[in-house]
Amino acid sequence: MPEERLQKLIARSGQCSRRDAEQLIREGRVTVNGRVAGLGDRADGERDHVKVDGKALRRSEPLRYLLLYKPREVMTTCDDPEERTTVVDLVRPHIRERVYPVGRLDYHSEGLILLTNDGELAERVSHPKHGLVREYLVKIRGDLDDAQLRKLMAGSVVEGRRVRPRSARRQFASRGGTNSWWRVEVTEGRTHEVRELFFRVGHPVQRLRRTAIGPLRDDRLRPGDFRALTEDEVLSLMLDRPLRPPRRPRPPRGGESQRRPAKARPQPSRAGRAAGSPKKRPRSGSRTAS
Q1: What is the CATH number of the domain that holds 202?
Q2: Which of 104, 144, 221, 271 could form a disulfide with 69 if both were Cys (CB 3.0 to 4.6 A apart)?
């Protein structure tokens, strides 16, 4: 087996994303044949002994891709020192392979989160350089006037970096202006980014729900539900392209049009229901501001 970069080898094992693997290497937590590895080192997964935190690297597992609706007050981590429920806890009873969450969704937020053991796809989704759009439905205290909307769109510094929303549009405002709902798109995906943007224009977030990750959305999922991605959805994430619209059946010749039976859509899973089989990665072949 040819040698490959350590971070890619670790990510392909399903232990973490490529970015996280790079951080493990920087921290000196990865060894190759007993020697502490550095960024840029390469290894042969069949011949070399690669360890992370003293534990041998796992062999590659079948690739899994899951879309989960994270409920509020659930951690977007693999484990939690305070023993709070994590997104992995929600899928672990039904999924044999080790998967991990891609990206961040804070403890008090809800909505869609991707879980996988495919390090290449995880890097594609989570790294800001790829500019994957994430959409949120946000309930705020009060409502934005024109000046506040312009300030929101100008952005703020979050975690030492200036971020700005891609778009923001009001969905609904209550009578009397006590609160309003906004649909917001961002491409950075930093922790508390959307909450910070609204807080700094004087309108704290009361509720936040992620409704889309790039081309992925599923309004049928309820808190705690999850399902396997289709091959087309995985390919759309890898190639950063829209999902193909479903084909409309062509009416039969010379007669009354008839409906063909629709293909079964992937069904969400809850406790006691399976979430689909392992998949191979497909080959690549209102007021508004935006």
Answers
A1: 3.30.2350.10
A2: 221
Output phi, psi for 279, to 5 deg: -120, 150
pTM value is 0.71
Rounded distance between C-alpha atoms, residue 168 and residue 166, angstroms: 7
Instruction: Please tell me what DSSP assigns to residue 73.
Output: T
| Sequence letter at residue 196 | E
**φ, ψ at 165 (rounded to 5°):** -70, 150
Closest CA to 31 of 15, 11, 48: 48
The rounded radius of gyration (Å) of the Cα atoms in the chain is: 22
For 236, the token pair is 């759309």
Which is the catalytic residue, given 48, 80, 89, 106?
A: 106
Give domain status of residue 155, yes or no. Answer: yes
How many domains does the chain contain in total? Answer: 2
Q: Is residue 231 part of a domain?
A: no
Domain membership of residue 194 as a residue range: 133-213
pLDDT tens digits along 169-211 = 999 999 888 999 999 999 877 778 999 999 999 999 999 999 9
> Which of 198, 213, 228 is the last residue before a domain boundary?
213
